[in-house]
Amino acid sequence: MPLLNADVDKIIMYGYYDTYFVKEINGVKIMRVNEDGSCVFFKQGQCEVYNDRPERCRLYPWSVDDHGKACLDDGCPYSGQIPDSAEMRRRMERFAMQLDKEIMGRRKTGNFY
Fold it and tell me: Residue 99 and residue 106: Cα distance in Å, rounded?
């Protein structure tokens, strides 16, 4: 899951160090995963930071296509049951634009972890 700076800041407020849950690749901050591929915050069947979970987690199974348009993730087994929502499309597209802006800023300044 890609992370916005605001997502990282919220989770740090829980008392976690960013090195515990953030991995950065070429300017893209992503959520670390456990050896089994599950999110580092998924413990005993629930999310430890659910109330302040990252925006991308809130938006799933919405995604963006190669043209930056919101769509449902074909990889989600429930995507066919999710109703179309103009609001969710707008939120997903705003998220993608903000993420791109942050990534470009980190790449431009070389401000990586």
Answer: 11
